[in-house]
Amino acid sequence: MLKGTKLYSIINQKCPKCREGELFDDRNPYHLKKLFDMPERCEKCNQLYQLEPSFFYGAMYVNYGFTVGIAIAVFLAMNVLGNNFELHHYLIGIIIAIFVLAPLTFRLGRSVWINMFIKYNPNALDEEEKAQALKRGQ
Predict the structure, then answer these.
(1) 47 close to 17: Cβ distance less than 8 angstroms
(2) Per-residue pLDDT tens for 69-110?
(3) What is the model's pLDDT at position 84?
(4) Calculated CA dihedral for residues 50, 54, 59, 63, nearest 10 degrees
(5) Confidence of residue 23 (pLDDT cuts 50, 70, 90)
(6) Measured between alpha carbons, how far is 135 from 128 in angstroms, rounded to an integer?
(7) Under 8 Å CB-to-CB from 59, ≥6 apart: which residues?
(8) What is residue 55's DSSP assignment?
């Protein structure tokens, strides 16, 4: 997967501007105490992650799409495995899958959302180094 692509940034949960910095403080989404923890800015290029107050509310819609996709996938998988399932079997399977994958879909939703608004800049790290050098020189 190429580093300059949006897919790279989304899957690896990297800064959408420089593709180097981490979007989340802890890479493991199943450390539930740190699930929501994000740095304020990218540690590499200084890109602000929360572009405006309540910026990540829109990520709920992306997460909803992932959740519907999971529900459909579980339903189809259960149909392929056998057609003798009753309604409550489908519901139990779907609910378990959604709960198990919720931390992952939460983070992917945020990653997709921020990548929709911040463009990749291959020179972001160089520009940040120049800005830091100017600050030190003053």
Answers:
(1) yes
(2) 999 999 999 999 987 899 999 999 999 999 999 999 999 999
(3) 86
(4) 130
(5) very high
(6) 11
(7) 109, 110, 112, 113, 114
(8) G
Dihedral (CA of 6, 72, 57, 26) sign: negative
> Cα-atom radius of gyration of the chain, to the nearest Å?
19
Instruction: Look at residues 105, 125, 115 and name the one whose alpha carbon lies nearest to residue 6.
Output: 115
User: CA 99 to CA 112: how far, in whole Å?
Assistant: 20
Q: Which ranges of 35-83 would DSSP assign to H, the alpha helix? A: 59-81
Bridge partners of residue 14, in order along the sequence: 22
The angle that helices 59-81 and 87-115 make with each other, rounded to 10 degrees, is 140
Q: Which residue has the tokens 């829109």?
A: 58
For CA atoms 41, 47, 49, 55, the dihedral sign is: positive
Alpha-carbon span 17 to 42, nearest angstrom:
9
Annotated domain spans of the chain: 6-127
